[in-house]
Write a structure and sequence with these properties.
single chain; alpha+beta; six-stranded antiparallel sheet; about 15% helix
């Protein structure tokens, strides 16, 4: 009986782990299954290895490899030139430097059918006498001498391609052997072809294609037959990042070519680090059908903050309408970066949170009285999430010794005090962005701490650190498989991610883009949902950071990712609504206020100015406040429209009665431009108002008319709140 029981346990564990798919969120590149052909060079397999640091590199067309390429060596095309006097010397221009023809005439002319831009000439001769090479262009004659001391050498003549050449004359007083004469009449070309074997729908091509100054042009082309090519896009050879190129509308094709135009200089090569090909949804894939949420918008919307709310003192020392009181109308959830190094110097220490209740100072090791801070946040009306933060710089992965036990002890002590005794914390994250941690050590911390927390407070929501499930090779090193395996999920209640709507543009600079853009990482929610459904069904997905950097409230914003104050309000609220629609159980804006430093990434993501700016509200502050006022008690119900022209979502009360609608144009620019949109929704009367209040013309009351089977309304990039049957 014991043997059977043991086998059942063994089989049960095997069955559980066999079902775990660490890559369940991935959308695999179509290039993985394509047949790849390159013009030259090795390591074509590196093009799709998901490692942007490996690369294919071509051979160099110059100084001599171009000679046997009919598209580059003019003299391989017999109809492009004539020889005078008429003599038969085919081996002298056959592209092979080892074959030869004997020239007995004193002068031989190669006359081009029409002047050509020749950038490079190659010649190999064996002669007992001097051979003069005269190159005749539209404007001048240039002479070169081939001396007998140079016999059997392959000489290259670099020419000015902007001066078209019409004739080349070889002159000598003695017979000689001409091994090769070649003329480069186009800039050298190298290419990579992807054959998908059958017609395939293409809407997105990502490439890492930095080549520097030696490559003048990179072009994407498509073909249905591999013979006739249609241009798709031009790529910038100077861009260093992985660049996504959208093909809109998407096309159906069998072949994709990446063609490199090289400068005509010796030993210049082309290279490509990585290529990935997808349909129009890219690496994020299509979203699943929308489902009604089980938490209201007010129960889902949060804001990130920290001890003291920018004042550097306990928040209970602040005045009314400062700190937590100022932001309670924006969000009912708050997330705190709970630094573990403010609790203990190393994991071997025992944490006694209760002893700190009576500490009043704010300096020195382990000085923090978190209970005092959290109690004031709860008093303001917040539901509190504690993100236990640690990374190599503040709490190295090397300090853990008996990792699981030490993490268990900390988690148990934390939950015993903050959850059971004080009842202050509603959710706990084990790590914020510990992406520099050794993966195995983090997983032990996760397993131990989550077990310790649940041993004291089974009701509390426990989440892992922020991860993503769409790209194993992402430079951030935050792919989910590194941090979570099946064995750590027993005491987890869901997944956690940080999403920012940034994208590398064609010049390789990272920019903020509107959240509806297919390239926006907003849609990486799709990957986490797929991973969750495959491996952790029934668990939640939380977005604990999202936001945009902007100017406003008297503070500048001048780094690459900055957008305008109005765009922060528009993009931010639209992004929150999309995340909510995609299934985020909670979403926390980063950050409550600007940081009191110079303009740099995330320092201008506040809903208000910084401490120095007096925490003056930005447009985004008022926009989120109004969003709470209008939608706080309601639940996302369904997508009405979601396309390139309009996004429109329906919201219902707790009984499932649809009461509100939010609609906007998914603008990336020209946000004030109004277009009339028909929303298919039958209603008797409505009330419509813009979400964002400014002094611009878009703040007039939205124009609309209620028709028999729908609403006809003028929309801009500013979301419109529509109250139905009013």
């Amino acid at each position: 009986m014991r043997t059977i029981f043991f086998l059942l346990i063994l089989f049960g564990f095997h069955h559980t782990f066999a079902q775990w798919n660490p890559n369940a969120g991935l959308i695999h590149s179509l290039a993985k299954k394509a047949k790849i052909t390159v013009s030259s060079g090795n390591n074509a397999n590196f093009l799709t290895d998901n490692n942007p640091n490996t690369y294919w590199e071509s051979e160099s067309p110059l100084p001599t490899r171009y000679l046997n390429n009919k598209q580059q060596n003019l003299l391989l095309n017999n109809n492009s030139f004539s020889i005078s006097p008429t003599i038969t010397i085919p081996l002298a221009y056959d592209g092979n430097t080892d074959t030869k023809s004997t020239i007995g005439n004193k002068s031989v002319s190669f006359k081009l059918s029409q002047p050509k831009n020749i950038s490079w000439a190659t010649i190999k001769i064996n002669t007992p006498d001097l051979v003069t090479i005269t190159i005749i262009s539209n404007t001048k004659q240039t002479k070169f001498n081939f001396k007998k001391e140079e016999n059997y050498q392959i000489l290259s003549l670099e020419l000015k391609p902007g001066d078209p050449i019409s004739e080349i004359i070889l002159t000598s007083d003695s017979p000689y052997e001409l091994f090769e004469l070649g003329l480069l009449y186009n800039n050298p070309i190298e290419f990579i072809d992807l054959d998908f074997i059958e017609p395939t729908t293409i809407g997105w091509i990502s490439t890492r294609h930095f080549n520097g100054d030696g490559v003048t042009q990179i072009e994407l082309l498509s073909s249905k037959d591999g013979q006739s090519w249609t241009p798709i896009a031009m790529l910038n050879p100077q861009a260093t990042a992985m660049i996504p190129t959208l093909i809109q509308p998407q096309i159906k094709t069998r072949f994709i070519r990446i063609m490199f135009t090289l400068q005509p200089r010796p030993y210049q090569k082309a290279k490509l680090m990585e290529i990935a090909v997808y349909d129009r949804y890219g690496p994020f894939g299509a979203p699943k059908k929308a489902k009604p949420t089980n938490k209201s918008f007010a129960e889902s919307m949060g804001v990130n903050s920290f001890w003291g709310w920018g004042y550097n003192v306990y928040s209970d020392l602040l005045n009314e309408n400062q700190g937590p009181d100022l932001f309670i109308d924006i969000a009912k959830l708050v997330r705190n970066y709970h630094r573990i190094d403010w609790d203990i110097d190393n994991p071997q220490q025992t944490t006694h949170f209760a002893e700190k209740e009576y500490q009043t100072g704010n300096s020195g090791s382990q000085w923090m009285n978190w209970e005092r801070e959290y109690a004031n946040w709860e008093k303001s009306g917040y539901t509190i999430d504690a993100a236990i933060t640690f990374d190599k710089t503040t709490f190295s992965d090397k300090v853990w010794k008996n990792t699981k036990k030490e993490a268990f002890d900390y988690g148990r002590s934390f939950a015993e005090y903050f959850v059971n005794k004080k009842k202050l914390i509603s959710s706990i994250e084990i790590g914020n962005e510990p992406w520099d941690y050794d993966g195995e050590i983090y997983r032990k911390v996760l397993a131990g701490m989550s077990t310790g927390i649940k041993s004291m407070a089974s009701q509390i929501k426990v989440l892992p650190c922020a991860v993503q499930a769409f790209d194993p090779g992402l430079d951030l090193n935050n792919y989910i498989a590194k941090y979570i395996t099946a064995s750590e999920t027993k005491h987890l209640d869901g997944l956690n991610t940080h999403i920012y709507s940034y994208c590398f543009d064609s010049d390789g600079k990272r920019r903020a883009i509107n959240p509806e853009d297919p390239r926006s990482e907003v849609w990486s929610m799709n990957n986490l949902i797929r991973f969750r459904d495959a491996n952790m069904p029934g668990k939640v997905v939380a977005v604990t950071e999202f936001g945009f950097d902007s100017e406003g409230a008297g503070e500048n914003c001048n780094h690459d990712e900055c957008i305008s104050e109005l765009e922060q309000a528009m993009f931010g609220t639209r992004m929150a609504l999309i995340l909510y629609r995609l299934g985020a159980e909670s979403m926390y804006w980063y950050y409550f206020a600007n940081v009191d430093w110079q303009s740099m990434l995330h320092n201008r993501s506040g809903l208000t100015a910084s401490y120095s700016g007096g925490f003056t509200p930005k447009l985004s502050f008022n926009a989120f406040k109004k969003l709470q006022e209008q939608l706080g008690e309601y639940f996302f119900y369904d997508v009405i429209l979601e396309n390139e022209q309009v996004f429109a979502y329906a919201f219902a009360d707790r009984q499932g009665n649809i009461k509100k609608m939010v609609a906007w144009r998914p603008t990336s620019g020209n946000h004030n431009q109004l277009e009339w949109i028909d929303i298919p929704w039958k209603t008797s009367k409505i009330k419509a108002e813009y979400l964002i209040s400014t002094e611009s013309e878009i703040q007039q009351t939205p124009s609309y008319s209620v028709q028999i089977n729908g609403i006809r309304i003028g929309l801009t990039g500013n979301p419109v709140i529509i109250t139905l049957n009013e």
